[in-house]
User: Fold this.
Amino acid sequence: MTSRPLCLTVAGSDSGGGAGVQADLKTMQALGVHGMSVLTAVTAQNSLGVHGVWELPAEAVTAQYRAVVDDIGVHAVKTGMLGSAAVVETVAGLLAGTDAPAVVDPVGVSKHGDELLAASAVDAVRKLLLPEATVATPNLDEVTQLTGLVVETEDGMRRAAEAILGYGPEWVLIKGGHLAAGTEAVDLLTDGVQELWLRAPRHDGRHTHGTGCTLASAIASGLAQGQDVPQAVMEAKEYVTGAIKAGFPLGGGIGPVDHSWQSRRRY
Assistant:
């Protein structure tokens, strides 16, 4: 067994390299964790949007997961785009049998507004996947998809957190980046008892593709290194804030965040 922290992403591929499994692995590498992957879908995707999605069958997801976990092991798992109810159900079962913390990013819609979770899969996310989460990381659009709540204020974020916790995750991080623009980007982390507001300067650059994937993977990387949830989330917030600030243009649309911003800053 390796002495390095091991982190597994279960998510879709982004052919443009800004989000999905590609963003996850870049984040893990940047944060000193050995990243491994289970592909759930292949997308034809670039800076302008998602142009095609091909989902993998549940048996292919299971085979990848078992191949990695049974031989190499894992210290934390992150889930992203799962797509279908069958894959959501499969991944929930795999997480239930894995002795490692899980960060569930309930990906529903891409940065460009493309649907990435079938309507028939939403109930499986609520009933099967979220109960297996150490931390769930919905953005405000995903809160609406899961709960019906429309969040427009920080008080609304509290109500959203309570609603998501009702589905069973240990912690929830409500990402407030889609709140009406202000001087700060505000997120709320809570387990229903402890409450931690995370604030960072809001950067107005448009190149933010992959933000959610990057944040969830950074949290999972911290958990893989033995951090508790609040510490992992605080450090992930700092990392993704820097990555957003360093986001760069790519193609003709929305460019990605810069996963290597810390190393570039040294030179």
